[in-house]
Amino acid sequence: MSATRSLHLSAEIGGPAHYDADHYVTLARLAERGTLDFVTLSDTFARPGPDALAVLSRVAPATERIGLVPTVTTTHTEPFHVSAAVATLDWVSRGRAGWAVDVSSTEAEARLFGRRPAAHDAELWHEAREVADVAVKLWDSWEDDAEIRDSSTGRFIDRDKLHYVDFEGRTFSVRGPSIVPRPPQGHPVTVIDATADAARAAAVRRADVALVRTGDQAVARAAREEIRDRARAHGRDPDRVRVLAALPVELHTTADAVDLAGLIGDWYEQGSVDGLHLLPGDVERDLAYVVDGTVPLLQHRGLLRRFYPGATLREHLGFARPANQYARAGDLS
User: 83: part of which helix (H) or strand (E)?
Assistant: First the structure.
């Protein structure tokens, strides 16, 4: 396996709503046994079920290494609260949090909140990108050593190391600073499903992980090349974006697990993807086949690690912890 490029593997653990947290703990632990980078838990305002971010906050202390990535809808929600909630997940997971950014585009969902009517996807994804932008600023609004916690002097915070973000977006403004100290990862990992055009426009600017829903290798390769090229055009290092094909899987036998390992290995070795995000039809059945059948074959081929070399999701993905933009600039606002 290349020292500079690793295969990344992740999976969705959602499905029919469960209100017993042990269900999700069991699935996350199974994925962790397979050394997957992360699991996602989908969520939407359009169907009933527990809040994905809250569920994974419960899963966090029951797991040790697996990354935890809930869907977080940026429409009809307050960016300040979103950033604080994701930062909190990073704290309770000790640096294993991400968030799958999504939008809400239906009138039925808009009526749940009563704040504004539904909007077009392009407008919603522009707003989502601005939410992702301000989230990074809020996470950086505390320098890493801003907390003093000196009981003898009564000083808890060095106020010179807290920063106003003063962000003005199209639909919101945020002054800051955050109410949550800078997360362990600095910036929790941002995941965006970049299949659709409007979402891809946001992903090339802000995503750490871009997902593309396709079962066609040529489509996956073209999407990866496009996303990397557009990220570069926006001044980003394309090697700082992981492009994973999001692939539905139905594994009824061990032989389907073997075939999946062959597909994953071929797509990865030919440079079509940085890895795959698996969407199981039956999560309990299919994830078990992946962990016990597909993963060992990929490990045998030297494509997939046998253990986690690091502790954080950013480390799983090969990303360094980012510098604080305010500390770097010497901004003492």
Answer: helix 79-92
Identify any residues that bridge with 68 across adjacent strands, giving them in sequence order.
Answer: 39, 97
Angle between helix 121-140 and helix 79-92 axes, rounded to 10 deg: 60
- Provide the CB-side half-sphere exposure for 182 (13 A, CA): 24
Identify the bridge partners of residue 38 per DSSP, sorted by sequence position. Answer: 10, 67
pLDDT band of residue 295 (cuts 50, 70, 90) is very high
Gap between the Cα atoms of 207 and 76, Å rounded: 21
Is residue 253 within 8 A of residue 293, CB to CB? The reply is no
For the chain, how many helices (H) and strands (E)? 12, 12
Burial class (CB in 10 A: 0-12, 13-18, 19+), 274: buried
Q: Which helix (H) or strand (E) holds 192?
A: strand 189-193
Ramachandran angles phi, psi of 174, nearest 5°: -135, 130
Residue given tokens 């539904």 in the structure block? 118
The answer to whether residue 4 scores a pLDDT higher than 70 is no
| Own/partner pairs, 161-169, CB within 8 angstroms, 24+ separation | 161/327, 163/326, 163/331, 163/332, 163/333, 164/333, 165/134, 165/137, 165/138, 165/141, 167/130, 167/133, 167/134, 167/137, 169/79, 169/127, 169/130, 169/131, 169/133, 169/134
Put simply, whether the predicted model's pTM sits higher than 0.90 gets the answer: yes
Q: Collapse the DSSP code of 295 into the 3-class scheme (helix H, G, I; strand E, B; otherwise coil) and give the result.
A: helix
